[in-house]
Amino acid sequence: MITPDAIGTFALMVGLLTLTPGLDTTLILRTAALGHRRRAWGVVLGIQSGTLVWGVLTSLGVTALLTASRLGYEALRWAGAAYLVWMGGRLLWATRRHSSSQSRPSAGARREGETRTGADDLLLGGWRQGFVTNLLNPKMGAFYVAVLPQFIPAGASHLAPGVLLAGVHILLAVIWACALIAFAHALRDRLQRPSARRYLDRITGTVIAAFGIRLALGQ
């Protein structure tokens, strides 16, 4: 049985990792800052669904096989890099292609559009974005392979302790996401102005594309 000390040490490690600004933080902040709280929660749920998958795969030993296979790891790395560069480039292209009056509706019009789109569509779209982004990040798999086995007692079944530790990671990440969404919501009125949204999209697109380039370069 996994010990409370091991859980506490793991929680401290992944807690510091969660607080480190990265791709997940960028996606959540950008989505919530634009007033799409339901979609932002979809992104959060998608990211954490990916974390759970990585935890289960690592516990079953599948992730170790992936990281040991250079071909498999490289294929996942390039797929993740291409997806991030595409996503970041799409945001950057949109800010150049459209003027603020053409591409940025008012808050009232956006809320009306969201109502027409449907809450379920927003949630599902956010979930899909978060899930794919997390699952195509081979560094998550490498991190779990390197860290998770250290906290699982020798001779014990790996699945239950692995899922428990992944659950600790997910819980801390959701708590942090609550703080990020609350912060973005407080600044929503300022960030929803056309010029502010344009700059926000440019910053977000640059950050996401940069993550993709770093992943492609193996950094």
UniProtKB/TrEMBL annotation:
Membrane topology category: Multi-pass membrane protein
Keyword Cytoplasm: no
Keywords noted in UniProt: Cell membrane, Membrane, Transmembrane, Transmembrane helix
Predominant place of localization: membrane
Transmembrane segments: 6-29, 41-69, 75-93, 141-160, 166-187, 199-217
An example molecular function term from Gene Ontology annotations: amino acid transmembrane transporter activity
Localization of this protein: Cell membrane
Cited InterPro entries: LeuE-type (IPR001123)
Domain of life of the organism encoding this protein: Bacteria
Membrane in keyword set: yes
UniProt name for this protein: Lysine transporter LysE
One GO cellular component term noted in the UniProt record for this chain: plasma membrane
